[in-house]
């Protein structure tokens, strides 16, 4: 009887784990938007089927998610290919900000960055004039940062025998950068940014920027996304343009910390509970990259008085596995 009971418990646990895995969220290059008492999640859908573009999920607790009840689309689509939007394929890396009553969604398609807008958080997001932000060169992974003086800056990745982070002043009215201000943030300099587990050209991508006590913090991912050591670190500067000083204890999110391969490319956000979190994606399994799974981890922010900066780390033993609500 004892052995039967143990077997039953193990079988139940296995079935429960399998059921939860099927309900997991498979957004990559993830971003989070917080409004009111709800969280809104979107990202690259990968090969999940359905219309190309971006879909929203909402939650009150970061754990259980569903298509927003107020959504005009049964799939939660907020931006769709061909609906007054730039791009034919490769819809990646969205990010949302609100400015003077209008919501803006910046994203990648056709290996170009673009920005669309909506009066509703739930969309649909469309462009007044269909086109990329800067069609002069390929650029991906856009992030618009608003400084305390009201100026906006576009951080993105440009290709130059690798993926490098760049910044330029951005005009919200025209949706364009000032090319004269374009500047590379930094080069690949640290061992963790180029591990031998997957050979590639230099890759630094997935930027998120925030400002605290007149210091700028640029969070980014490094290594190829197929590398099990895809990871997240950050750098600090006195200006939106740098020069940037990389944190000596990078990476702050890595498989050795959160326990899962390919942990990277996400977004830093403050929760409803005032706790900082980082949302990111991981590899599908130990031997398979896609479709990538979504994860959320609490972030610890501490003031380093001697250095005059904040330091960031994560609670790797408190990773949240977001799942879809049972129907």
UniProtKB/TrEMBL annotation:
Task: Return any one Pfam family short name.
Answer: Glyco_hydro_43
Active-site residues from the entry: 29 (proton acceptor), 205 (proton donor)
List the signal peptide residues: 1-19
Which stretches are transmembrane? none
Q: Which InterPro entries match?
A: Glyco_hydro_43, Glyco_hydro_beta-prop_sf, Glycosyl_Hydrlase_43_Enz
Q: Which domain of life is it from?
A: Bacteria
Q: What is this protein called?
A: Beta-xylosidase
């Amino acid at each position: 009887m004892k052995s039967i009971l143990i077997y039953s418990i193990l079988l139940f646990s296995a079935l429960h784990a399998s059921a939860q895995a099927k309900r997991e969220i498979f957004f990559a290059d993830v971003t989070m938007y917080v409004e009111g008492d709800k969280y809104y999640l979107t990202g690259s859908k990968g090969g999940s089927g359905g219309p190309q573009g971006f879909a929203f999920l909402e939650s009150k607790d970061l754990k259980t998610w569903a298509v927003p009840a107020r959504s005009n689309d049964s799939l939660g689509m907020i931006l769709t290919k061909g609906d007054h939007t730039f791009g034919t394929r490769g819809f990646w890396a969205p990010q949302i900000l609100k400015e003077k009553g209008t919501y803006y969604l910046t994203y990648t398609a056709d290996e170009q960055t673009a920005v669309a807008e909506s009066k509703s958080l739930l969309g649909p997001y469309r462009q007044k004039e269909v086109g990329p932000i800067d069609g002069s060169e390929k650029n991906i992974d856009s992030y618009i940062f608003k400084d305390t003086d009201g100026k906006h800056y576009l951080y993105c990745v440009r290709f130059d025998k690798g993926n490098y982070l760049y910044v330029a002043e951005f005009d919200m009215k025209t949706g364009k950068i000032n090319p004269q201000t374009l500047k590379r943030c930094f080069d690949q300099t640290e061992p963790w940014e180029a591990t031998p587990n997957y050979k590639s050209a230099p890759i630094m991508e997935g930027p998120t920027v925030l400002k605290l006590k007149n210091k700028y913090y640029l969070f980014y991912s490094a290594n190829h996304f197929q590398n099990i050591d895809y990871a997240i670190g950050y750098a600090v500067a006195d200006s939106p343009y740098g020069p940037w000083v990389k944190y000596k204890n990078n990476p702050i999110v890595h498989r050795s910390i959160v326990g899962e391969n390919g942990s990277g490319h996400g977004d830093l956000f403050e929760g409803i509970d005032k706790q900082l979190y980082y949302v990111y994606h991981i590899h599908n399994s130990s031997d398979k990259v896609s479709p990538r799974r979504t994860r959320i981890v609490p972030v610890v922010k501490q003031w380093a008085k001697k250095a005059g900066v904040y330091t960031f780390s994560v609670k790797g033993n408190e990773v949240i596995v977001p799942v879809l609500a049972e129907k």
